[in-house]
Design brief:
There is one protein chain. The chain is of the alpha+beta class. The protein is 57% helix and 17% strand. α2 packs parallel to α6. It comes from Paenibacillus algorifonticola.
């Protein structure tokens, strides 16, 4: 009975090596797409997350075999694994960035979380689940990424910041131009210019106008921004929007 109990908490060096190597391979497959896309967490990061997760679950399952027969010791192989799932959130948070009105890095953070789960599955010997998860993750990142880009090209929201002269017709002209070309204004904000150097130089006062506009296609939008930049009363313009 004692030998049977001990065997549950023991693993051969061969099996241990296979599991760690498989964790590296599967984690690397998911990380390839992130690496090709130039993301902050790429090929090596995903390998390390998968390898580390697999190592932790192997440690949790087999690292305390010496205490398996102790009457007052209760071994729980899921305890360390649970900490990996929660702890990976800190690493994923480091890949999420806010750019203008958009957020980037969510997919990379999610892929790191999935890779951690794959590593845990490999470490626990749940090879089929790990292989299926890797296949689906690779399909999601490579194939669905192209579909997502195709859909995003058809409708986007950009944030445009204008510096306009007060009491000019610039704002009315800009709004009218958007409406004439079928572009929907998602949000419009008007702010006073805190650093109004033109007023100090004897010029007219200016205001900051932030417009979030939804449009289809890219060529028409580029042409319109050039036209609006030369409108009367427009002192400056900045397109800070990443596609939402």
């Amino acid at each position: 009975m004692t030998n049977a109990v001990s065997s549950v908490w023991e693993i051969s060096y061969y099996e241990l090596t296979i599991r760690l190597l498989l964790a590296v391979v599967l984690g690397g497959l998911v990380g390839l797409e992130r690496e090709f896309g130039g993301h902050s967490a790429g090929f090596r990061t995903h390998i390390l997350v998968s390898l580390g997760s697999s190592t932790v679950v192997l440690l949790s399952m087999y690292g305390f075999a010496a205490f398996a027969n102790e009457p007052r010791v209760n071994l729980d192989p899921a305890r360390l694994a649970a900490q990996v799932i929660s702890g990976i959130g800190f690493l994923g948070a480091g890949t999420i960035l806010r750019k203008g009105n958009g957020i980037s890095g969510l997919t990379t953070a999610a892929s790191l979380w999935v890779v951690a789960a794959i590593g845990l599955s490999v470490g626990a010997g749940f090879y089929v689940a790990a292989a299926i998860s890797t296949t689906l993750a690779v399909i999601s990142l490579f194939v669905f990424n192209k579909l997502e880009k195709t859909f995003s090209r058809t409708k986007r929201i950009h944030e445009i910041r204008f510096k306009l002269a007060k009491h000019s017709s610039g704002l009315q002209d800009i709004v009218a131009t958007f409406h004439e070309h079928g572009m929907k204004i998602h949000k419009l904000s008007i702010l006073d210019d805190d650093d109004d150097s033109s007023e100090q130089m004897g010029g007219s006062k200016t205001m900051n106008v932030i417009i979030q506009v939804k449009f289809k296609g890219t060529s028409l939008f580029s042409d319109l921004t050039l036209v609006m930049a030369s409108m009367d009363g427009v002192r400056g313009m900045e397109i800070s929007g990443e596609p939402l």
